[in-house]
Amino acid sequence: MTDVLIRGRVLTFVREPEGIDDTRAYRYYEDGAVLVANGKVANVGTYADLAKQAGSGISIADHRPNLVLPGLIDAHLHFPQTQAIASYGAQLLEWLNTYIFVEEQKFKEREHAAFIAGRFMDELLSNGTTTAVAYCSVHPESVDAFFTAAEARDMLMVGGKVMMDRNAPETLRDTPKKGYDETKQMIGKWHGRGRAHYAISPRFAITSTPEQMEMSRALVAEHPDCYVQTHLSENKDEIAFATSLYPEAKDYTDIYARYGLLGRKTLLGHCIHMSDREISVLAETGAVGVFCPTSNLFLGSGLFDRDRFDKLGARHSVATDVGAGTSFSMLETMDEAYKVLHLQGQRLSPLHSFYMMTLGNARALDLEHRIGSLHAGADADIVILDSRAKPAMELRMQVASSLAEELFVLQTMGDDRCVAEVYVAGRPMKQGRREQAKSPVGRAAELA
């Protein structure tokens, strides 16, 4: 693995910003550099200092005047829904039955799963996302495809097969025992292999019987180092249906609590229509509510109340939720997050947006020692952002006078065109794909 000195305007967060003027929340080097060795960050600082440290033989990747940041992190999305994005006109339960369950049946076929997994990973990278937490389909073949594609790109990814044994087409249902056995097999095969992390994934209470929830409880107890992912309180009809299936539960959140599924490694998609009691349970257990703004708007689900989570001390993160989410871009996602919060009288500063996409989401995954910031010893997952990538952005940037203004331009107007380069474990991915496309050997390998 080649050592490299990545030069540009380096920005990395060290804590959650308390406001738009909180300069202590981040480190910024106007002419900065990241020294990468063996796929890790060896040092971060000014270019002058690091060039001396690295010596004359170091390879230099000069990305001036662009910003150099940690790779972006997406805390919740569905890889089998990659081709179902932009499916018209339905709210959650109708949308699942009309489009999603139809699409996910294709993932029994290994070739289809492998094709979509490759395109999914490349779409993430094109948008500057180097780590994501994803649901696979109910089929083990989809899990193999997901982690194989991630491993080929050396990406740190979290994922797992959905467990669902009711209220879905027969071809998408497992059984409590089958769901347990296949999940355990996939954990043994993939969790901790390279950069792979497994997520035990009962889809949501509506599609899992009490017997399957008991099996989920057993898996969590047996594999406490795995993540847990599911959905919670996305849609009012969903809440009514879920609580009718578990009448003994106090509320929707209590369903998961009764089966021991809430903890620091639990990621709960959406968390929109929740009582203070439910949010307090998340705070007590350390479970993470995942804010999915483009999805919540697209399906007409509702508005995530971030300030109430903060007031009650509950953890939260942010995600695209493709394919109900309408973009793989975390920049476009934060643009919609700003609007969702603005509608509720809540502020989302550009500093906070970039913190959430990097260190904030890394902390939600308890992976801040590896990803989400640029510090010695971190994995060298890095994104290069060009705030002048579009003509309208270039025009706007002519009058931008601060770093915060520039970040807000990126957040509000940015998309995949702003991603100039992405490094995964120190390897340039956009340039690498261009070189592979030019190479007859690389092209043959891609087609094989």
From TrEMBL:
Cofactor(s), names only, from the UniProt record: Zn(2+)
GO BP terms, alphabetized: guanine catabolic process
Pathway assigned to this chain's UniProt record: Purine metabolism; guanine degradation; xanthine from guanine: step 1/1
Pfam families hit by this protein: Amidohydro_1
Enzyme class: hydrolase
Domain Amidohydrolase-related: 67-427
Alphabetic keyword roster: Hydrolase, Metal-binding, Zinc
Co-factor remark: Binds 1 zinc ion per subunit.
One example GO MF annotation: guanine deaminase activity
Catalyzed reactions per annotation: guanine + H2O + H(+) = xanthine + NH4(+)
GO cellular component: cytosol
Keyword Cytoplasm applies: no
Record field: transmembrane: none
Enzyme Commission no: 3.5.4.3
Function as written in the Swiss-Prot or TrEMBL entry: Catalyzes the hydrolytic deamination of guanine, producing xanthine and ammonia.
Family the entry assigns: Belongs to the metallo-dependent hydrolases superfamily. ATZ/TRZ family.
Protein name: Guanine deaminase
Provenance organism: Sinorhizobium glycinis
